[in-house]
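Anyone have tokens for PorP/SprF family type IX secretion system membrane protein? Sequence:
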Amino acid sequence: MQHTPRLCLFFWLFLLTFLSSNAQETMPFVQYYTNLYQINPSYAGIDGQAHASLVYRKQWLGFPGGPSGALLTYHAPLRIHMSYGGQIYNEQQGFLNITNLMGTYAYTIVLKEHEAFTFGMSAGFSSTSLGLSEMGNITDPALLNAKLGFGILGNAGFNYRKKNMLVGLSLPGLFATNQASSESFAVKSPLLAGGILFHATDRIYFKRDRYAIEPHVSYRYYLNNPGQYEVGVIAHLNHKAWTGLSYRQGLGLAAMAGVKLQNKYMISYSYGVRNFSENSIPYDSHEIQIDLLLGRRLRGREYLSFVDDHKPKRVRKVTTKHKNLAKHMDKITDEHEKSKTVVDTVKITVVDTIHVWKEKMHKARFDVAEQTMDSAQLAQDSIALEMAYQAILAEEAERKAREDSLSNISVEDKIHHSIITDPEWKEFILGAGIYVVKQQFEKFQEAVAYSDDLLAKGYFTQYGYHVDKRAWYVYTLKTTDKAEAELELDKWVRKAQFKEAFLIEIE
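Reply: yep, here.
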């Protein structure tokens, strides 16, 4: 039942999409599920590593002059908070040839673990030309006088991510060039030409996370035209293949499938069935796509990749349990301080009591001697006083023993003993390996605070406890290759704030 809220969300989003009527073709490619950067610049770097993709679409196969398009994209994370990307798009619409080129920058704000907000923006230009020579004898003044050339392009978007769920909103055409005008394209740039695109998806894993279902819902709103909705569902199959089905209003059904190799390469194909409505063009469409993941995944960057569809692992050990352990350390310290306070209080009380009893015994003996009390009464009173006095001395000896015990076992010793004996702390203890350490701390809380501060500045770190040194280390790399560790260390010590970085080796 843990997925019920998610399914309810998609159910209501699905109902909302039916509020529109009369749609038109708005998204050039069907397989954008595999590369969400195609529809929203804020998804740049979502794979946690570089992602290159090439897709070709042939629409209305068999229709003379049917449009075809190709899109080449590349995007990658730059740091934990920053990403970049670029895309080249070419489309043939009869005698009209359109080429777009755009670059992208995206910035991520980490709200908390597994939850983030990302904003992205792209800008570029468009080049348009007409194949007049292929048209034969042209006499239409509109075509002869058309000033086809360069224009400016731009789009923007943001997305909210929580674990495997994504909700995004984008402006696919902040401004776009009119493609049929007797004026310069750079002048005619209507605002929000691409409308407003809403998209939501989630990935639900099952069967030991080897399979997953991924529903998608999107809706594009236009200022002066009817909107358009799309629903789709993808099935990931044991990290080896995927298949899916989608329906886009005005375009019809599309079936798609792909294969994955080594969690880095993917080739996929989609077949769009013609829409049988009265106003549609009765021709099918084809689309083929190739995706590549390049380089290493950026450490510390949370990701959600379609090509490498393994369930994302925690990139950093910051959990509720860790916060509770920090509270446990504070509790040990507080109890230690309270014990010392109690001992000091008892010490004062016992010393005062001994002094009082000594005075009482001295006075009693003096009074007995003065009043020449009988020897039996004197002996009885002396025994009672002596017993009371011995009890006080025993209490004082116990106090001293407790005080000596506390002085011999410091709060640091208590915490160290707790770390090495409590299973809850096991994952914090540094194992065998070579570590590139940025700084050393005595207290767990200080190490966490420093590591969090570096994360906020875009530096990925971990932290752990060195049992022999009884110290907490904030480190950036753990490896068994000393050459790799020295290379990493050299990179950090060149920066002014990390000149004190050093290596440690644990056997």
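The CA atoms of residues 214 and 440 lie 44 Å apart.
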